[in-house]
Amino acid sequence: MRYFVYNSQTGRTYFEGVGELSDPILEHHQNGAVIGADVSGDFSEYYIDDGVIVARLPMPLITTNTPLIADGIDEVIISGIPSGVQVEWPDGQTDIVTGGEIRFSVDLAGTYTFRFTAVPYLDQEVTIEALAAN
Question: What is the pLDDT of residues 45-77, one digit of tens each?
């Protein structure tokens, strides 16, 4: 038997195992709920909705204006962000997006990665290449 340990408030899975569900397993994961399942794939591809294992959906992100010119004026727009998604900016700051889009501009050439997380969506990264201004 394959089992998932998940946060009962968000439905996010954070551990999986194979074997019989026993008291030691349940005691070890006191802060999470445990559910048995017969599904394939990585545990991060699923979430638990009211006791039912559900496949997470792709996040419908759209990135425009890439590559970015690193001049502090040119900007990339990442849109299609569902409400309640947590975005981690390249500097490590996190925000909850209430839906819609974020905009990013920079004056230093380099590679910048954004991380988007929210149940019921698959976690997603968007990498932006910022090219030196001429």
Answer: 888 777 777 888 999 999 998 899 999 999 999
CATH code for the domain in which residue 88 is found: 2.60.40
Cβ atoms of residues 129 and 67 within 8 Å: yes
Amino acid at 62: I
Same domain for 80 and 49: no
Q: Which residues pair with 104 in a beta bridge?
A: 76
DSSP 57: B
User: What range does the domain containing 119 cover?
Assistant: 62-132
Instruction: Indicate whether 7 and 42 sit together in one domain.
Output: yes
pLDDT recorded at residue 14:
65
Whether 112 contacts 106, CB under 8 Å: yes
**Rounded to an integer, what distance in angstroms lies between the CA atom of residue 124 and that of residue 118?**
9
pLDDT of 93 > 60? The answer is yes
